[in-house]
Write the structure tokens for this entry.
Amino acid sequence: MKAAVLYEQRKPLVVDDVEIEDPKAGEVMVKMVAAGVCHSDLHFINGMWPAAVPMVMGHEGAGIVEKVGPGVTALAPGDHVITAWVSPCGACLTCMIGKPYLCMTALLQGATMWDGTTRLKKGSQQLNHQNQVSTFAEFAVLPASGAVKIRPDMPLDRAALIGCGVMTGVGAVFNTAKVTPGSSVVVFGCGGVGLNVIQGAALANATTIIAVDTLDSKLELAKQFGATHVINSSAGDPVPQVLALCGGLGAEFGFEVVGKPSVVTQTFEAIRPTGLAVMVGMPPAASNVVISTLGLFLNKTLTGSFYGEARIHIDMPMLVDLYMAGKLKLDQLISGTYPLEKINDAFDALKTGQVMRSIITF
């Protein structure tokens, strides 16, 4: 099969012929239909995050179950699924305390299957899996717990977006912050995930939704997704404007969706006493954030949201239903589609900052 392989960080992906093994116990093989091109993938490619090279890339996708391994009863060939990039084991500490999105087994063993081996190879060379899934390939083998069955009338090229960007953004609103009706929200960063935070806030019936970005084109999109006010932060510190729009005190909920420590600080400064700031973006692992101790005394809270605190088998079908009911915007997120052979072109487009989501179609 064809797959996009990262053989060396800071080098382009190589679309190569690779072999894939049949699923083993507790695993499924999915024929990929579509995969999203995400900034997280770019972080692996450009060396911002460590990568277990050589690795077949991709973590956001949807497809059709091709085969199931021994012991798999919840899925069958022909089922339509979204692939999740955290496949909960159900047995580790974080799974058992009700936080499967932080499954330590999956996160620490994400380059291989549960048995420590891979299902991918190029000749005699073993290839690793990105997040146990590797969606930039014609087929993917992953733990069955990470394949989320969805209704068959859902377009799979739209469903692919739910696998990461939509779940991360909307989940940060619904699951992490639990935004309340009538509340005020500020969102720093209006890329693919930021737009989903904005539409999540709109779905939660927040009445003041402030979008902050440096590009007017993204701010115009933010209005389509539910922003009631927009601020171009290239002109200066946006925090005073946010405070003014929220009665001088700040927003009740703030979301950082850029991945910069300085923007995390701005988000914390832009919320009111007793407010909640949520870091959704992923700054470099070694970076630090500076926040006001006075803000802490005023009961401000700063927290992180990992994968939108997803309950994948509950939340992803719910998001599908919202799209099919015309309440969740997915079509507007897609900036373009590419065949697998043009995947490096899709990443070049992503680097410009103008692209929301590109889709690889098979």
In short: The longest helix spans residues 156-177. The chain has two domains: 2-149+330-361, 166-308. The chain has a mean pLDDT of 96. The domain at 2-149+330-361 is CATH 3.90.180.10 (Quinone Oxidoreductase; Chain A, domain 1).
